Amino acid sequence: MINIKLIRKDPQQYKNAAKVKGFDVDIDKLLRLDRQITFLQTQLNELKCAKKVLEAELLELKPLFNEIMLKVPQLPDGLPHTIAEEHGTLHRIPYNIGV
Description:
- It is a single chain.
- This protein is mainly alpha-helical.
- The chain contains four helices and no strands.
- It starts with a helix and ends in a 12-residue tail after the last helix.
- The relative contact order is 0.08.
């Protein structure tokens, strides 16, 4: 297998070699796909970094959120927890955040 870095460096050499050997290879298309892969890999890496930052922020906020939620009074048993629950139109959203 040929290293893509060598093809990037001198694509014409590989176009000529493929032609001489009778191979039907679209070097330009290969290079376009290579650029697309590189672009997508960069985006993926940026998203992974952003995810790590958000996870760290969430970990910092979770104790405060849970502390505040402990201060929220509980409704007595038998009473609907939300107006929507009373009418059966929406579902209750859980308040506990998990990481």
